[in-house]
Amino acid sequence: MDPLEFEPLLKRIRWGGRRLGTALGKPLGDHDDYAESWELADHGHDQSVVARGAFAGWTLSRLVRERSEELLGRHARAGVEQFPLLVKFLDAQDRLSVQVHPNDEQAKRYAPDENGKTEAWVILEAAPHSRIYAGLKPGVNAESLRAHLAAGTVVECLHSFHPRPGDCVFIPAGTVHALGEGILLAEVQQSSDVTFRLFDWDRLDRDGHPRPLHIEESLAVIDFARGPVDPAQPEILVEEPGRRCERLARCEHFELRRHTISQPLAVSRRNDFSILIALAGHADWCWNDERHPFPRGQTMLIPASSPDVRIEPRGEVTLLEALLP
Questions:
Q1: d(CA 153, CA 139)
Q2: pLDDT over 90 percentage in the chain
């Protein structure tokens, strides 16, 4: 199966902006609230569609159902109907709500067809005033958090830091978090859209009403033992002239590696798939006798049955690779 590129699914949300277009080349309309570009999605009606090649027009869901072995390799199994990961870019011009996601077991109690949501962010751009809120401060428990919710002082419970480009922030299910304003990032997560909103900064919607909160659900799924979350420390896997490979995150749901290259890179599959996301610079990807541009903001799915793909950088290029452990 050829390497696959998909049409982005663009989401307009009140906290979005224009950088998905200006920084990442997404085809935006005239509005100023483009918040998310779903690059690789197999979630209900949200379906990535192959942009070109032999499978042009196929949804990711159809590929999983009809070509599972070729696409997923060792991860294929009888009855599999959903691609396990969801890849996005986010442009946060305003801060997002304080929220938490359930794990797989908890998610089934609230939405039987949903998965839990463990996610990881890789920061592309951050304004000088940007903050990320990740995890609770030491000593915060359900009782104290509930008291701060009632008083409107939840921010006093939240650990936060100023993010820098290149930071990877790993957010396991059960972690209280909020993305602050002025941040552009890439996100890899489980295929899920279950979010419990704990606090919304006392904001009102266009009709003057607060958005619904999910306080009891949030308190039921928060992991109060987790504590503060800071950027992950990369683990160097390869360092040689023209190439550096770092492991940014690893869990039962996915592994993230960052490749910084100035020399060609061969991506070989061994009966599993991988996802490549161009974070910086410009390259071409080559397969058989074909050559295609691979600019910043592009995402490519390399099926398990694909022959080697060769990435040829034009200068220094940074790629994020997502794969299953």
A1: 16
A2: 92
